[in-house]
Amino acid sequence: xxxxGQALLNVLxxxxxxxxxxxxxxxxxVGSLQQGRDAKGDAQVYNVARAGLTHAVSWLQKQxxxxxxxxxxxxxxxxxxxxxxTAAEEEQLGLVHEFEIxxxxxxxxxxxxARSTTAPARGAMADGPHSPLYADxxxxxxxxxxxxxxxxxxxxxWRVRSRAYLFERPLATTPFSPKHVLQHMTxxxxxxxxxxxxxxxxxxxxxxxxxxxxxxxxxxxxxAHGDRTNTELGVADGTGYAIWSASGLVATDxxxxxxxxxxxxxxxxxxxxxxxxxADQLHDVFGVSDLGKLREMAVHYYEDAIDLxxxxxxxDFIYLKPNGGGITFDGAPQLDGGGVLVVEGNLHLKGDQxxxxxxxxVFVTGHLQVEKACELTGAVICGGTAEIHGYEGKxxxxxxxxxxxxxxxxxxxxxxxxxSTIRVIDxxxxxxxxK
Length: 435
Hints:
Blueprint: H1 2-62, E1 94-102, E2 107-114, E3 143-144, E4 157-168, E5 181-193, E6 201-205, E7 219-221, E8 231-237, E9 241-244, E10 263-264, H2 278-286, H3 291-297, E11 300-302, E12 316-320, E13 326-329, E14 336-343, E15 346-364, E16 368-382, E17 385-389, E18 396-401, H4 402-412, E19 415-417, E20 423-426
Parallel strand pairs: 6-9, 6-16, 7-17, 8-18, 11-12, 12-14, 13-15, 14-15, 15-16, 16-17, 16-18
Antiparallel strand pairs: 1-2, 2-4, 3-4, 4-5, 5-19, 5-20, 8-10
């Protein structure tokens, strides 16, 4: 009898321990699944918020008057042939879009990008846009912050917030409601217009605009190692200068190089008298304060020219920062594209095997060497020595073109999200989202 009781006690103890382990194991599995769902949800709601930012960029780019002075998307009720940017019942708020993510789970997504406070009131909501989750006017409306970004013209820098939701929709006719929201997030970012300002010159240096008499650090040699008759620095169309520099050593008479007159085989030489004014040139041309901000504007960033697509697109914004401080295009790889090419360092173009060609702006922070078969049409900005050496049968040409630069501005001078400004101001970001 005593043995029977002991055996029963052992069985009960074993059952208790087993049950405890099962309970802990189940909780761990459930917790792991929940963490996985939460992580997936974080990534999903983040991507929905990014979609809102993308929609805001698209809306800004499509406006007929640039830069955009008022962020005020409409439902286009007056023109039914146009695709509506937002639903008629939502245009009080701004850009609003809903879409299905998972049909079986009845999971939907929604983003809201609120209008600017300067947008005119419509209908009953005279005190500003509202969100279904807020009783008060939205505090995260779009803002024109151009004035606080280096005194840029109004409408060139917009700070917008995109609020995203994951929610359940039990029935297709069920309206969006706070009680169905599973996750939410608000992203903030600056959307900047990258219109560029160019001087009317084929080649110019880092001049201080406040000291026009000072030499900006450029040395120009258009003939030293080549065939003078096959070396050309001039103007392709319109009026402009072959070279723009305030040094008497480099350019004693700008007027002689205006109105389409090209400088071929002439003797130009100069030496640096003061430090280059890189910051001034970045501000004047691109409207940014440093090279880091300029990298943000670029569409592509490379540390090795071999990574560039061959050939390059006809209109692109490429930033090169070579590891060794300099980069060479000698046919492998070949330079053959257009748009804006920025080289943080030295650039050597050598047309021995293939023509090296670019239509647009070439911006070099270091030294520039152009030799043999090369064609740069648009403008070149150089922070150090600039040498242009043509040879018989392989001419080197650097030509100012107003038409090319206008095309660059029309296609690349547009609104883009400044990636470094994206931040989560409400919600939980996935770990890898902002890397």
